[in-house]
């Protein structure tokens, strides 16, 4: 289950940002953007996140996921469509197979809210790395 490695990567990145901020006492919520084509099972990610947070500054933090539907564009005719699940990558307008995925593979931390003496921190929007 790669959702656990994703959850651990999120916890590591948020803890690193909290450590740099120095005065963080607890993380209250983490908001993730998760594309429909990212291969992530939301319930498995939520379960893994709760386990990964145990014993850290994130213990008890709420995981908020923002789903991003898959969208594609046909290179020959420029038609755009929602690809759905399973993804339809053949153009519904012209039948073309040369398509570009525009959205749906996202997996990034959008923002983090924590308790400290300053304002909430919004990290740079970067893909979540599963490498440890």
pLDDT averaged over residues: 89
Straight-line distance between termini: 15 Å
As a percent range, the share of helical residues equals 10-25%
How many beta strands in the DSSP annotation? 6
Structure characterization notes:
This protein has 132 residues and is α+β, with helices and mostly antiparallel strands. 24% of the residues lie in helices and 29% in strands. The chain is built from 2 helices and 6 strands, in the order αβαβββββ. Helix 1 crosses helix 2. It starts with a helix and ends in a 17-residue tail after the last strand. The model has no long low-confidence stretch (mean pLDDT 89).
List the helices and strands and how they pair.
Elements: H1 2-21, E1 26-35, H2 42-53, E2 62-68, E3 71-74, E4 80-82, E5 99-103, E6 107-115
Parallel strand pairs: 1-2
Antiparallel strand pairs: 1-6, 3-4, 3-5
In short:
The chain has 132 residues and is of the alpha+beta class. It contains two helices and six strands. The mean pLDDT is 89.
Entry keywords:
3-stranded antiparallel β-sheet; 3-stranded mixed β-sheet; alpha+beta; 132 residues; 24% helix
């Amino acid at each position: 289950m790669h959702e656990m490695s994703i959850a651990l990567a999120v916890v590591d990145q948020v803890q690193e940002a909290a450590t740099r901020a120095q005065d963080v006492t607890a993380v209250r919520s983490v908001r993730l953007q998760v594309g429909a084509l990212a291969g992530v099972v939301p319930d498995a990610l939520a379960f893994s996140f709760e386990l990964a947070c145990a014993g850290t500054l994130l213990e008890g933090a709420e995981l908020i996921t923002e789903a991003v539907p898959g969208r594609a564009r046909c290179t020959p005719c420029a038609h755009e469509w929602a690809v759905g699940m399973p993804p339809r990558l053949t153009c519904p307008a012209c039948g073309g197979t040369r398509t570009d995925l525009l959205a749906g593979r996202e997996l990034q931390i959008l923002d983090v809210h924590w308790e400290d003496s300053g304002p909430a921190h919004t990290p740079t929007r970067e893909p979540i790395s599963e490498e440890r």
